[in-house]
Design goal:
Elements (H helix, E strand, L loop, with lengths): L2 E4 L3 E7 L24 E7 L1 H11 L5 E6 L4 H9 L3 E7 L6 E7 L5 E6 L11 H8 L4 E4 L4 H13 L4 E3 L10 H8 L4 E5 H11 L3 H7 L2 E5 L5 E5 L5 E3 L13 H15 L3 H16 L11 H12 L1 H11 L1
Parallel strand pairs: 1-4, 1-8, 2-6, 4-5, 8-9, 9-10, 10-11
Antiparallel strand pairs: 2-3, 6-7, 11-12, 12-13
Helix pairs in contact: 1-8, 5-6, 8-9, 9-10, 10-11
């Protein structure tokens, strides 16, 4: 099964200020703020929802196709993804803009001041999915993740026009979208991904009930944080899968992306929805135990030991056949 993942490609530049922002602010001078913070460290991490998802799928051996836009500074990041099993041949490289970037400073109280530079991501709207399909020999599923809003709409329209199955995954972009856009992006999707809060926001903005939304998609996949995931299907039973026990809780960033990577990999293998969700929850657990969205390593033996402990020998035997 050939799966393409569209969405953001970005780098995160994370800095730590040992003091408190509040101590540097003068109440009657807030209209003319001019501050510079001497930080202790700089941590540069690879990110972007599409790249994070593809990295996880590559770790599981499913060779995803990354579709998005980056700048000429993408070479090192591309080499990293290529080395970890990602097909980056459909990434558009901007001639004038840098790769999207998040720059954030965190103080001693965990308050943050950050900026997001869209950069080359704005050119994702120029990518034609048919050209991607022609290059790789066809597409069985396209996940349309958080990206330039115009790109998300274009990719959705093209999938519908060309009868390519797609998964709707608004993620961070749902906050800026109106009801009409959300209705367009989800209607006809084979899968609709969201967390619990986003689920409520989708229903509120569209004006559609849970039942109405489910009738317009094949499957609704709702992540429940530490409680795992719930999958609802038209005409099928509700499936609930819990999370494996964590060895540590280090950083929740990228956990949702990791779940999607595992779930999509399960679909690629042809296992059922429950097994796919179990793989997603196992991969998400590895990410929450690691600082950074692409800094974890996947040892097959370690993965299967923990998967077996969480979900039993029968489930493990089915997954092991694809991981081996």
């Amino acid at each position: 099964m050939r799966i393409a993942v569209t969405g953001s490609i970005a780098t995160d530049h994370l800095m730590t200020f040992p003091g408190r922002f509040a101590d540097q602010l003068v109440a009657d001078q807030l209209h003319t703020v001019s501050l510079s913070f001497l930080v202790d460290n700089l941590d540069v991490r690879r990110g972007g929802v599409a790249a994070n998802i593809c990295f996880g799928m590559g770790q599981l051996g499913t060779r995803p196709v990354l579709v998005g836009a980056a700048g000429s500074d993408f070479d090192e990041y591309r080499a990293w993804l290529d080395r970890h099993g990602v097909d980056t041949g459909s990434v558009r490289i901007s001639e004038v803009l840098h790769t999207a970037r998040f720059v954030c400073t965190t103080d001693a109280d965990h308050n943050q001041i950050g900026s997001f530079y869209t950069g080359a991501m704005s050119e994702a709207r120029l990518i034609e999915l048919q050209a991607v399909a022609d290059r790789v020999g066809g597409l069985d599923l396209v996940l349309i993740g958080a990206d330039d809003p115009e790109a998300m709409l274009r990719h959705t329209e093209e999938c519908k026009t060309r009868a390519i199955p797609f998964a709707a995954d608004f993620s961070q972009q749902i906050a800026r979208m109106g009801g009409d856009e959300i209705r367009t992006l989800l209607e006809g999707a084979t899968y609709l991904f969201s967390n619990e809060y986003e689920k409520g926001l989708i229903e509120s903005k569209t004006g559609w009930t849970e039942a109405e939304i489910l009738s317009k998609v094949g499957h609704r996949v709702t992540t429940l944080g530490s409680r795992g995931v719930r999958i609802e299907s038209v005409g099928g039973p509700v499936i609930e899968v819990g999370c494996p026990e964590e060895e540590a809780k280090v950083d929740p960033t990228g956990v949702g992306d990791a779940f999607r990577a595992g779930f999509l990999s399960g679909l690629s293998w042809g296992v059922g929805l429950e097994r796919a969700a179990q793989v997603g929850c196992m991969l998400a657990t590895l990410v929450i135990e690691t600082l950074g969205t692409q800094e974890y390593t996947l040892s097959r033996a370690h993965f299967m030991d923990r998967f077996t402990k969480a979900y039993g020998h029968e489930a493990a035997a089915e997954v092991q056949a694809h991981l081996a």
